[in-house]
Amino acid sequence: MPEPVEPFDVPVREESVIRLGQFLKLANLIESGSQAKEVVASGEVLVNGEVETRRGRQLAMGDVVRLGPQAARVADEATYDDGLPW
């Protein structure tokens, strides 16, 4: 089994609004909503180190979502706007 990797940051627009299924797709950990339903229901997804079986769970800034060896962290989009020319 591959070693878990450090989570990468995935910027989201609003605090406490994104749900687990949406985040999995946004982070490119899965390809579709139906795949999100399958992996979450089967207990393959961890949120902050604990198995999560609710696809609709609301995530907060800093939450780490892990699927297999990949991991993504919910990050504040505002921190990624600094220094951009647009």
Descriptive account of the structure:
The chain has 86 residues and is of the alpha+beta class. The protein has 2 helices and 5 strands, in the order βααββββ. Helix 1 crosses helix 2. The model has no long low-confidence stretch (mean pLDDT 87). This is RNA-binding S4 domain-containing protein.
Indicate the topology.
Blueprint: E1 8-12, H1 20-26, H2 33-41, E2 45-47, E3 50-51, E4 64-67, E5 70-76
Parallel strand pairs: 1-5
Antiparallel strand pairs: 2-3, 2-4, 4-5
Helix pairs in contact: 1-2
Gyration radius (Cα, Å) is 13 Å
Question: What is the approximate shape?
Answer: globular
How helix-rich are the residues, as a percent range?
10-25%
**Based on DSSP secondary structure assignment, what is the total number of beta strands?**
5
* Structural class category: alpha+beta
- Largest sheet geometry: 5 strands, mixed
Q: How much of the polypeptide forms β-strand, as a percent range?
A: 15-25%
Order of helices and strands: EHHEEEE
Keywords: RNA-binding
Pfam families: S4_2
Domain RNA-binding S4: 18-79
InterPro entries: S4_RNA-bd, S4_RNA-bd_sf
